[in-house]
Request: fold
Amino acid sequence: MLQLDRKNFDEIVLQGEGAILVDFYGDGCVPCAALTPHVEALEEKYGDKILFTALNTTKARRLSISQKILGLPVVAIYKDGEKVEELVKDDCTPEAIEEMVKKYI
Reply:
């Protein structure tokens, strides 16, 4: 999974082409850590069709706020630079993430 930061987020996500999944997580976020293996498994399954990325919001607070990430975990899909769908907190289940990914591949 490609790690994002405030230096490369614009180039990879906002200027990127096609569908890009961004897993927003934070230091000490237990639900985020629990989701990581599931997201990595989805990357193995669908990584040839959609770019999987992750952003540590603890290290990029302003960027996270600019993307309207106000709670965690959040998994979002960006398409051609625009956020088109996201799952937040309790909706962020492995099954829901896979369903969301399938819509954009």
User: Anything to note?
Assistant: The longest strand covers residues 19-25. The domain at 2-82 is CATH 3.40.30.10 (Glutaredoxin). Strands lie at 2-4, 19-25, 51-56, 74-79, 82-88. The chain is about 35% helix and 30% strand.
